[in-house]
């Protein structure tokens, strides 16, 4: 699996740098690719923030308050500081803090 | 080029690249450690986790790989989902090609292997004010990114093996991506794409963990459709 992903990833990197050095991407594809990072990362983040309920009867996402609060805090921190490190440190501190607080209450 | 007979100008550009790489380290080290830790937490061995970092060498897709591997998704779904995250390299490769054309074919293979978001972005920014030495700058910057990545992800693997599951470390993965996504919130189209893809990933009840791929494609389609409504500002 790792090798297959490595080969796929390397071919994409190599594509225009060596394989078709004089080629170019069609413009619709360039525009589509511009949205891939935002879409893919949001698709990864959302299920971690809203852990899905198991079973069809409760097919709506369940709310995990500490995760929701920590994610919102992280967005604000990241927006203003632009720092990965601060976002991770303060985001985890918020998550653990709210978890501890709700555990006490 | 640079390494065999370095002329002063390209050597200076290479050193500029090294410096730029060092200035990015503080952002890359935590990301690399999270990727290593996620691989270990997903049950990959030290060798497999390290192989992911040096063979794939692309953080976001390494995280997707670890997450889906931990969730017991089928191999094909893991590979396809992680590869989609890396589709952006097609775009980077095409945009960088004219600036790296002075490199020999062998060096271009190396340059391709070292391609990352950071190396791409900073080299493109540099070419807007200084077109000379872009290739040397890129190679310097990309080498620092590579070395930083390997060391921090191996440190992360060791860390991931000792952190207890009760610490909710899976949330760090979300935090890393939030750090990347937050600056995009200013763009209403990117924001809509994120909301659609995020909602899709949570709400789609699809077997085999195909929800990530479908939500990503839906997000991209939404972005393209929105271009028809809100014209790009350029």
Provide an overview of this structure.
The complex is a heterodimer of chains A (105) and B (234). With 105 residues, chain A is an all-alpha fold. The longest helix of chain A has 23 residues, at 27-49. Chain A is elongated, with a radius of gyration of 20 Å. Chain A is built from 4 helices and no strands. In chain A, 75% of the residues lie in helices and 0% in strands. With 234 residues, chain B is an all-alpha fold. Chain B is built from 11 helices and no strands. Chain B has helices at 8-41, 46-56, 59-70, 75-85, 88-96, 105-113, 117-129, 134-162, 170-181, 188-203, 211-229. In chain B, helix 1 packs parallel to helix 3 (59-70) and helix 1 runs antiparallel to helix 9 (170-181). The longest helix of chain B has 34 residues, at 8-41. The mean pLDDT of chain B is 89. At the A-B interface, helix 1, helix 2, helix 3 and helix 4 of A face helix 1, helix 2, helix 3, helix 4 and helix 5 of B.
Determine Rg of chain B (CA atoms, Å): 19 Å
From the N-terminal CA to the C-terminal CA of chain A, the straight-line distance is 46 Å
Percent range for β-strand residues of chain A: under 5%
Task: State the secondary-structure class of chain A.
Answer: mainly alpha
Please compute the radius of gyration of chain A using only Cα atoms.
20 Å
Q: What is the strand content of chain B? A: under 5%
Dominant shape of chain B: globular
pLDDT under 50 segments of chain B (min length 5)? none
Q: Which percent range fits the helix content of chain A? A: over 70%
The greatest interface here is: A-B, 65 and 90 residues
The count of strands of chain A amounts to 0
Count of alpha and pi helical runs of chain B: 11
Beta-strand segment tally of chain B? 0
What count of helical segments of chain A does DSSP give?
A: 4
Main β-sheet of chain B: number of strands, strand sense, barrel status? none
């Amino acid at each position: 699996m790792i090798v297959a992903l490595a080969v796929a990833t390397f071919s994409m990197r190599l594509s225009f740098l060596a394989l078709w050095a004089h080629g170019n991407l069609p413009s619709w594809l360039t525009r589509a690719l511009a949205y891939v990072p935002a879409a893919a990362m949001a698709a990864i983040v959302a299920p971690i923030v809203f852990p899905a309920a198991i079973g069809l009867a409760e097919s709506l996402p369940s709310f995990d308050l500490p995760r929701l609060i920590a994610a919102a805090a992280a967005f604000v921190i990241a927006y203003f500081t632009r720092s990965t490190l601060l976002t991770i440190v303060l985001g985890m501190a918020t998550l653990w803090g709210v978890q501890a607080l709700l555990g006490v209450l | 080029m640079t390494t065999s007979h370095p002329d002063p100008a390209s050597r200076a550009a290479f050193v500029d690249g090294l410096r730029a790489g060092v200035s990015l380290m503080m952002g890359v080290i935590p990301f690399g450690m999270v990727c290593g830790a996620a691989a270990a937490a997903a049950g990959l061995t030290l060798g497999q986790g390290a192989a992911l970092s040096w063979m794939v060498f692309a953080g976001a897709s390494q995280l997707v790989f670890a997450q889906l591997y931990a969730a017991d998704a089928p191999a094909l779904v893991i590979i396809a989902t992680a590869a989609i995250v890396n589709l952006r390299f097609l775009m980077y490769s095409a945009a960088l090609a004219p600036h790296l054309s002075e490199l020999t074919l062998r060096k271009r293979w190396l340059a391709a292997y070292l391609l990352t978001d950071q190396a791409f972005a900073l080299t493109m920014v540099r070419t807007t004010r200084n077109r000379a030495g872009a290739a040397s700058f890129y190679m310097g910057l990309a080498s620092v990114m590579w070395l930083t990545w390997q060391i921090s992800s191996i440190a992360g693997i060791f860390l991931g093996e000792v952190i207890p599951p009760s610490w909710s470390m899976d949330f760090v993965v979300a935090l890393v991506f939030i750090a990347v996504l937050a600056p995009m919130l200013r763009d209403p189209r990117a924001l809509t794409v994120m909301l659609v893809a995020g909602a899709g990933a949570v709400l789609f009840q699809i077997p085999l963990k195909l929800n990530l791929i479908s939500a990503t494609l839906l997000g991209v389609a939404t972005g393209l459709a929105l271009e028809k409504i809100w014209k790009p500002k350029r």
